[in-house]
Structure formats: structure tokens, C-alpha cells
Design brief:
This protein is about 50% helix and about 10% strand. The chain is an alpha+beta fold. A four-stranded mixed β-sheet has the order 2-1-3-4, covered by helices on one side. The protein binds S-(P-nitrobenzyl)glutathione.
């Protein structure tokens, strides 16, 4: 459920997403984290689907210099980078950042940790398994990259311990970290760390995530999720 913006709040934002995501709607493309943040803060939004051709056309490149999704438009403001978009939403709405300034800075730290420390080896693994699988060295490289992912999951698991979220209440830091970790599930690596698997499941069980997931699935399959 979304609520209309209060008076003075900018008009409905527009995000871009793949017209058809390569994952067929499993929620792994990065528009899902932006949809999730929008749902958490109760903002309605519109989606402009882009095809692989449109992604590199001048109109989209004006929004995203690298020709990727997602982008975010709100009035005169245009943003790219999912982390920056989630940060913008968390800064301008209640619900994703704690009130206390230090706790807020720690939540931002977890957002950066998600995209700059944890996500890179996970992306590298996707590259190794999907895009480089026919290379003669693939069989040797994949186990090395899997170990690099474990090198990030192990300390994260130790830090989370038996807490529900990384630092007190759910925050944009958790939203970004859960979104990043979700992409390790197909590899089986997430299940090696039961507390991280449970952490991701807690994120997915949030009603805002469920709405975001359902919306991207419907866009990709044309069918509402059951
Ligand atoms: N750092 C940027 C951000 O966080 O916004 C990265 C944006 C990005 O790489 N976007 C991808 C993209 O536009 C979509 S999410 N790719 C098109 C291209 O490279 O030309 C990456 C993605 C794609 C597909 C799946 N999948 O099918 O599982 C998962 C994730």
C-alpha cells in the first residue's frame, strides 16, 4: 500500500527498470531495492520500463551516463546509482534512518559497506559463473571467487550474530545489505551462514519488500504474484 504525498512533497517519482529483467522477475535487478525503499517510506511511484536498446539511447544516457538501470526522477532532480537513490529517500522521509545522528551515520556506513565491500565479490562471482563460464580457466577461477565472497560473509555473519538487524532497528543499511546478499542465494553460499540466511529472509518478509517484489514480478511476467 502506498500513500499520496503530503502537501509540499514533490510529485510522484519515476524510476527506470528493465522492460524484461534477465532474471525474469526474481527481484535481483537493482530497481528492486529502490522500489523497496519507496515502499518502506510510503511513496507511490511510476516505472518507465527500458529495453536494452533504449538503455543506451541518448534520452536514457542523459539520466544515466553508464546506460544502466535504475534511475530516479523527482521533479527537476535526476539520480542514478541505487545506493544514492535509497540514501536520498532515507534522508527525505521518515522510516529508513534513525533519529540519532550517530546512528544515522552508522546506517550510512552499512549502506557503503553493502555496495563497496560486500557487493563487489558477489558481482565477480556472477561474472565468473555466468559470463565467463566457457573460458578455459573458469573451473579454476570460480572456487577462488567463491572464497572471496565467503571472506565477506564470514565477518558479516560474526558481526550480525543473533541480532535481527545490523545496528538496532531496520534501516537503509539493512535494506541495501539484504538486497546485496540476496544475490548470493543462487550460489548456495548464503546457506553456509544460517544467521545471514535468516537476516535476508527477515528482509524479504517485510511487507514493503513483498510489495516491491510483487511489482517487479508483475512487470516481468505480466502476472500478479500469488
Ligand atoms: N552501481 C549501479 C547501481 O547500484 O545502481 C549498478 C547498476 C547496474 O549495474 N544495473 C544493471 C544494468 O543496468 C541492472 S542490475 N545492467 C545492464 C547492462 O549492464 O547493460 C544488474 C543485474 C542484471 C541482471 C540480473 N539478473 O538477471 O539476475 C541481476 C542484476
Amino acid at each position: 500500500m502506498t500513500i499520496d504525498p503530503a502537501p509540499g512533497v514533490p510529485a510522484t517519482p519515476i524510476i527506470t527498470a528493465f522492460e524484461r529483467s534477465p532474471d525474469g522477475g526474481k527481484g535481483l535487478a537493482r530497481d528492486t531495492r529502490v522500489r523497496w525503499a519507496l515502499e518502506e517510506v510510503g511513496r507511490s511511484y511510476d516505472v518507465r520500463p527500458v529495453s536494452f536498446e533504449e538503455k543506451v539511447a541518448p534520452a536514457h544516457l542523459a539520466l544515466h551516463p553508464f546506460g544502466l538501470i535504475p534511475t530516479y526522477e523527482e521533479g527537476d532532480l535526476a539520480l542514478f546509482e541505487s545506493g544514492s537513490i535509497v540514501l536520498h529517500l532515507a534522508e527525505h522521509h521518515a522510516g529508513l534512518f534513525p533519529e540519532d545522528p550517530d546512528a544515522r551515520s552508522r546506517a550510512i556506513t552499512w549502506m557503503f559497506a553493502a555496495v563497496s565491500t560486500v557487493e563487489p565479490p558477489i558481482l565477480e562471482l556472477t561474472t565468473a559463473v555466468v559470463f565467463e563460464r566457457d573460458r578455459p580457466w573458469a573451473a579454476e577461477r570460480v572456487p577462488l571467487v567463491r572464497e572471496r565472497v565467503r571472506d565477506r560473509l564470514r565477518p558479516l555473519s560474526a558481526r550480525l550474530g543473533d541480532a535481527d538487524w545490523l545496528d538496532g532497528d531496520f534501516s537503509a543499511g539493512d535494506l541495501m545489505m539484504v538486497s546485496v546478499l540476496l544475490r548470493t542465494r543462487p550460489s548456495g553460499l548464503l546457506d553456509e551462514f544460517p544467521n545471514l540466511a535468516a537476516y535476508v529472509a527477515r528482509g524479504e518478509a517485510r511487507p514493503a519488500y513483498e510489495r516491491a517484489f510483487a511489482a517487479q514480478l508483475e512487470q516481468n511476467t505480466g502476472a500478479p504474484s500469488s
